[in-house]
Amino acid sequence: MQKFTALLLILILNSYASVAQNVGISNNQKTEIHYLSGTDKDHLVDWDFFCSEGRKSGKWTSIGVPSCWEQKGFGTYNYGSDDSDKRAKEFGLYKHTFKVPKDWNNKEVQIVFEGVMTDAEVKINAKLAGEIHQGAFYEFKYAIGNLLKYGKDNVLEVKVNKVSANASINFAEREADFWIFGGIYRPVYLQVLPKENIDRVAIDAKADGTIIADVFTTSQKATTVKLSLSDANGKKIQDLKVEKATQSQDKWTVSTKANVIKTWNPEAPNLYTLNIEMLNNKKEVLHAVSQRIGFRTVEIIEGDGVYVNGERIKFKGVNRHSFHPSSGRTTSKKISIDDVKMMKDMNMNAVRMSHYPPDVHFLEVCDSLGLFVIDELCTWHNPILDTKVARKLVKETVVRDVNHPSILLWANGNEQGWNTEVDDGYAKWDIQKREVIHPWSIFKKTNTIHYSPYHSLVNDSYSMEKILFPTEFLHGLYDGGHGAGLDDYWNLMWNTPLSAGGFLWDFADEGIERTDKNNEIDLQGNKAADGIVGPYGEKEASYFTIKEIWSPIYIEDRFITNDFNGIFRLENRYHYTNLDQCKMTAKWLKFDGPEGKSNPKIMAEGIVKMPSLNPAEKGKFTVELPQNWKSADALHLTATDPYGKEIFTWSYPVSTPKQLNSPLIDYAGGGTLLSETKDNSIKVVANKMTYVFSETTGLLQKVMKGSKVIPLNNGPIILSQKDKIENIAVQNLKDKVEITVTFEKAVKSPSWSTIKEYGKDIIKWTVHSNGLLDVKVEFKGYRNLKDYRGITFSFPEKEVAGMKWLGDGPYRVWRNRMKGTKFQVWENNYNNTITGESGFVYPEFKGFFSSVYWTKLKGKDDNGFTVYCHSPHTYLRMLTPDKTQEDKNGRLNPKFPLGDISFVKNIPGIGTKFQDPDTMGPHGNSEHFFGNDDEPITIDLTFEF
User: Fold this and answer.
1) Exposure check for the chain: N or C terminus, fewer CB within 10 A?
2) Glycoside hydrolase family 2 catalytic domain: from which residue to which, for each copy (predicted)?
């Protein structure tokens, strides 16, 4: 981990490359940056401000820049889908005074705006700097040297209209499915260059070391260009010989080749700095700039796939908004780093910009830490951007972002918002000639269908030769999608040759702190609650499911039994890394009981030798079995990547529930047992415990410990059971009382047409003399069941304070989201979080938990209990999650069993905003097959009050 942290620090420190730092070159030959605003959401500079409408309007005051003015208490909030009569149309007036040195008179001075929402009219000293800029997500600049007063105060005035004068921009940006804001929300700075300068550079650095660079300049004094290459630490490693140079009216095109370089890819994001010096005929440096680059080659091969550096890749991607709850679209480099680190931690390798170009620093971090990027023009459905403005915005997008090695593709808008007249315009500005896609369309070589049902991934339609990668899939509204369904989707995607993976929707809940509503989080109902993480990065269960499923080390599922030989089969799902560069440790663990420590005891620990497997190769590894391995409770395998970062920890129970629980349960001791049947009740008293059962149903009616009521009752009801009771028998034995409830035989399966006799369902209670209470339930399985099989009890939610348990956790599971948990002791306090809607406290307390061995329920009034489950493969149902407010189709609120606490053998899948679980793959299917006619299903529990 120290190695990874050190590498991360180096990458971050070297991620700023917009200003030349060439050794031996004077400041007069460099580009200087002078900020007029602050640099990010946490570093603002106050400007004078006037808002025309809404809150705090009609008077001059001040505002921190950069910012969204709504987050500073001005104007009115709008979401893109708001009705037109509710849409705010305020404008803001900004004023800022600044000085420039006298010696800038012989320089070129430009003012740069990284992003303004939406139309910006800029004046310097009361004179227009240029034409009004339209488009909220694009960098623009003006040459203002002839407008400045050198050595004196200068006045910058900016009028910002929240609503554009261009109707097509409004439809693309202001009526889209995201929050819309107003203001100068990204930094503003002065860029000071020599009079004879390089305007910009565009670089194509190939995997073989070949470099072609366009050096844009209008200088009449420039006669040649000099190149050198530095490493990530700024150390020059090579003077580059210009092999070819051609000059046109506005640029030089030069080519060269670097030696002994390492390529860029997400697994090894090797970066360099290309230093460019423009010289006059005396070999004097007129202007020197530096540009960070990565050597890589991108190819989209028709009917084959997406190739990077000669390797066919699959996108393990997510969509991401530039957003923060407290500041809206104004972010920071720290946010970019945090977001990319979480994506990398989930074993992702790609991100799609949704639905606009991001902050520059986000792309810098993708370069540094390693993510493939799809960069996107902001459009939305129909009508499309008009061609004139679309061409301008395509230019601004590509010119700003052209040199980022992380960018593989351009997206010409989103979901039918494509103006096809500008598809070819990207190549005009992109020296690398990256290809253009239409998200949610079959276009040229690709099929980027959105929210594809599982069956469509077989790709057997008329477009079967297209490269398939959904740019949005498994919509993550509330607790649905994302990890739910991903295991099925990814197994099919991984094994389908023409699949290039896909991009989940989306990374984070886009909840805004409403400054007009006491800073409460607003998610616009079900429109913005789509994240894998919450508004502040709170990790939902799907985070860890994705981490396991997208692990580059894929381990086949297996169980540890007495026949275990230590062998695990695996596949290398990296694209560039041999598995022998990774490490794995094995820990054999022993857990304390409910009253013990949560941390496990390590019985044995060892290093697992990873096999030498190239990408896509399969093999196996062997875990050494210590002499006492069968006495362990669990095996944990933790893999780390070449930088020391954890890939995932897989866990495997070793002991069965019965083996593990037996030493924890002591039936000895106790005193006299008293039982009586009276008033339709069976009452048993043992060692300060009193149990009351119904004489007609056999269900537990009341539990008392001394004089305190333990509110567990009304169980065990056998779910999906309609048989009548045949007999209830009470047997008083020496040290226990047994109550047996026998049901009549069922003679017809509810899902089969044939008549077949089934065994009898049985509930058997055992009250021991020391007060322990056992219940063993045997019931039929039924084939093709669409309802629950198991047992349930009642326990008031208001009495629950928390729980501690041994099993998979700490997150709940669904049938189609089983991965991402770890088998060990967990402890959660009660919460009433509705995923993505309210609370945002994770893990959620309520739901289904898998592989539960024992649970200690904490009551608010010391009225809880401990229950040991001796039956394998049993799910604990803990209470019922509150329903989400906006789930019109019922896809995100699966039906729960009656009662409050249940022990079941099957659980439901969960859907998405657009799909039922049944369309999301085999694990989402609502049918459960219980096919054993020879043995009943058994749930065997021990209660300790």
Assistant:
1) N
2) 302-518
Instruction: Report the Cα 257 to chain-centroid distance in Å.
Output: 39
- pLDDT at res. 158: 98
Dihedral of CA atoms 708, 714, 717, 719 in degrees, nearest 10, equals: -110
Q: String of b and e for 676-697 (b: at least 16 CB within 10 Å)?
A: eeeeeebbbbbbebbbbbbbee
Residue 542: strand, helix, or coil? helix
Q: String of b and e for 624-660 (b: at least 16 CB within 10 Å)?
A: ebeeebeebbbbbbbbbbbbebebbbbbbbbbebeeb
The pLDDT tens digits of the residues spanning 797-820 come to 999 999 999 999 999 999 999 999
Count CB atoms within 10 A of the CB of residue 371: 25
Element (H, E) at 750: none
Which of 693, 704, 701, 707 lies closest to 737 in space, CA to CA? Answer: 693
Structural domains of the chain, with CATH:
2-23+207-293 (2.60.40.10), 32-194 (2.60.120.260), 298-534 (3.20.20.80), 553-653 (2.60.40.10), 673-944 (2.70.98.10)
* DSSP 8-state code for residue 414: S
Beta strands in 57-139 (DSSP E): 60-65, 78-79, 91-99, 107-113, 116-117, 119-124, 127-128, 133-134
For 662-699, how does the pLDDT look when each residue is reduced to its tens digit (9 = 90+)? 999 999 988 889 999 999 999 999 999 999 999 999 99
Output the average pLDDT for the chain: 94
Angle 690-695-698 from CA coordinates, rounded to 5°: 80
3-class secondary-structure state, position 842: coil
Model confidence at 598: pLDDT above 70: yes
| Tokens representing residue 269 in the block | 């994001």
3 state DSSP class of 768? strand
Of 36, 18, 42, nearest to 331 by C-alpha is 42
